[in-house]
TrEMBL record:
The lineage of its organism: Bacteria, Pseudomonadati, Pseudomonadota, Gammaproteobacteria, Alteromonadales. This is DUF4920 domain-containing protein. It comes from the Bacteria. It comes from Psychrosphaera aquimarina.
Length: 157
């Protein structure tokens, strides 16, 4: 009986260890290509340099789409900067439980050119989301938003 209890304990420990290893890293799509790593702050400082070829970014996940899991925002290496990682609905589904974890995303940087009116609506939406005041008259120029369209994402625990 003692041997059986010891054997069961060993099997339980091994099983739990394997479960832990299995969830230490989760890949979406092809997974991230760690050989093309670029800092989010560098990308946002000179986005035109990164538009022509795939890049990989790294950051803590600060937001995830709560409706379909179709986007997430990664914190930059520079304070108060984020980069949105956006997929077509259903291509990859990022779990809400991933918030706070580190993610690597490989893909193509895209520029979304907004009109002045679209810029005002977008900034009003962000202000409302963050429970902040917003004055639409303070926006006098159209803006461009940059996001990464990934082919692979790796989320680490």
């Amino acid at each position: 009986m003692r041997f059986l209890n010891t054997a069961l304990a060993v099997i339980l420990i091994v099983t739990l260890s394997l479960i832990n290893v299995a969830y230490a890293e989760r890949n979406f799509g092809t997974g991230a290509d760690m050989t093309q790593l670029a800092k989010i702050s560098s990308i946002l400082a000179a986005p035109e340099r990164y538009m022509s070829s795939p890049i990989t970014v790294e950051g803590a996940i600060v937001k995830v789409c709560s409706k379909r899991g179709c986007w997430m925002e990664l914190a930059s290496d520079k304070k108060f900067q984020t980069l949105r990682i956006k997929v077509r609905d259903g291509d990859m589904v990022f779990p809400m439980a991933a918030m706070g974890k580190v993610a690597y995303a490989t893909g193509q940087l895209k520029a979304l050119e907004l009109s002045l009116e679209q810029s005002k609506k977008y900034l009003a939406y962000l202000a409302q989301e963050n429970d902040e005041q917003f004055d639409a008259n303070s926006v006098t120029q159209a803006m461009t938003i940059y996001e990464l369209s990934p082919t692979g994402v790796t989320i680490k625990d």
